[in-house]
Amino acid sequence: MNREPSMTGIVQPIDAPGSGHAGSARRAPLRRRNWRQAVWSVPLLGLLLVLFVWPLLMLLIGAFRSKAPFLPGEWTLDAWRVAFHNPGLLAAIWASVQLAFVSTLASLAIAIALAFVSERTDLRVRRLITPCMLLVFVTPGIFYAIAFTQLANPWTGLINDALRHGLGIATPWLNVQGWWGIYTVLILKKVALTYLFIAGAFRALDSSHDEASYLSGAGPLRTFLRINLPSLAPALTSIALLGLIAGLQVFEPILILGGPDNIVVIATLLLNLLGGGAGPADYAQASILSSLFVAFVALIYLGQLRTLGRKGYVSISGKFSRARLVSLRGVRTLVTFSVLGFLLVSFAMPLGALLFSSLQPYPGVYSGFSLDRYIGVLQQPRVVEAIRVTLVLGAIVGGVVMTLGFAVATLARQLGRRRQAAIRFATLIPLAMPGVITTVAISWAWLSIPAFAQLYGSIWLVALALIVTAMPFASQIALSATAQISPSLSEAARMSGAGPTQTFFEIILALAAPSFIAGWFMTALMVSGNLEVPLLLKSPGVNTLAVITYNLQSAGDYSMAAALLMILMLFSLLLWGASQTTLWAFRRARHLNNQRNKQRLLSIEAGTSGGLGNE
């Protein structure tokens, strides 16, 4: 017990923080805060376990069952004895690994070059790179692959027809079907994601490091290779990890471009094992392959954390200074034409091919252009129903997954490092599981409970699977947004009597509204282009635009499929416009509210100073 002399000269005891009435008074608010936090966090943690951990456990259980976990069966190890003696399984794994590494390295090199041109040079065309890459990124994978089939398929591809009619070349010069087409489409699509990921980090680098390098005699290229790239190691390794995972999970390009050559990778093999092929479903082998895939991705992720955790990569200073723009001098023309050529191949030509094909009466016919295909596709009841289902799923899944992502990010900030890492790992589990695996795991988890068996074939099971699939993306947006909000704001709200729920909605979401709305829009686009979940669940009344487009493409109706894709692109633009309008209205309302608060504060200060002057 501490003691302090009193005014009367007698030593009086001072209560320690944990003693007497003062200690009890201090513990009471703490107990009340812990109770409120438990009431808010326990259901959220339970929801995370149900959505992410439980399906993974059911997936592991399926590897030791003769039937799906929700069906009567026996415990057995037979699948483990025969799994790795299947030559088709080993070939699919090798094809996926090769595709993942080659596409990741190629896209990373191209994206780094584009980021350097965009952020470090004075070329005029650099302003076109970011918007074009953004549009390529928001284009769903299935639509991007179909655009290239319209452009360069060996029968009615627009480029081949132009060469045939213009130059008399009878043999198809370009063939997007097969491995070359798959590599091209996947690399171009991944370049957009990689560029958008590293461009912001490139822009945030401390320019004083560049200036110090220039003063030491190093040129722009040497500074870029010796200073900028090592400083970007965390961002580059993170996007490389995501690229490897995306390459291992690739599904739509294989389904669209690999069908004629019977190309099989992990995702399509899983679809065949689960009954998508001619043979009976083999749930145990699908579970084994899925479990090994998750373990492999987890090892890569842990290796990245362990490697980067030993080094420091501080490259952002508190004082901002714009980096010096490099003049390319002699290679300016070459770089300009290279950038324009890449944007032409990756963005302008695929989008133009879709638009042109949607106006054709039939593929290969270059007369009678009209809007009949648009009118015809909108007159089909299944298309109208698919549009309605896609919009409903996009709105529901986008709102739910972003709210859940921000709730998880807010909860993680209140916990210790180990618990925070565990929660983040739980939300990243779907990142290590292809869409086919995630759909199977969720179906097994929920259908194993008799009360939820009726969800099969309904829009709610599809929405649940899409929420889990989109959660890693939403959690990354939420973590980035909440990291910019000072914890003192939440503490001030709690000290003012606000509960956790009120603090979350009125402080966290209000301040992070731009990121929340942008994430909602991006998630809705991901939902509209997701093919694995609705295709695998095979619900007759829950067909989305992606499923209808794939069916039209498979039936050979390319013009109708192109018209439907352009309609979906129009919906995407409308959603983007709605999100931007909402952001503008929110910012305008917040600005007006701040102005009113300033005026009120000034009037109060003026009244106070006037009263003191009168006194």
TrEMBL record:
Residues 93-304, 387-579 form the ABC transmembrane type-1 domain. The keyword Cell membrane applies. InterPro entries: MetI-like, MetI-like_sf. One of its GO terms (biological process) is transmembrane transport. The chain crosses the membrane at residues 38-64, 91-116, 128-148, 180-202, 232-251, 283-302, 334-356, 386-409, 421-447, 459-483, 504-527, 560-586. GO terms for cellular component: plasma membrane. SUPFAM superfamilies: MetI-like. It comes from the Bacteria. It is found in: Cell inner membrane; Cell membrane. Residues 1-25 are annotated as: Disordered. Keywords: Cell inner membrane, Cell membrane, Membrane, Transmembrane, Transmembrane helix, Transport. It is a multi-pass membrane protein. Pfam families: BPD_transp_1. The keyword Zinc does not apply. Belongs to the binding-protein-dependent transport system permease family. This is Iron ABC transporter permease. It comes from Pseudomonas monteilii.
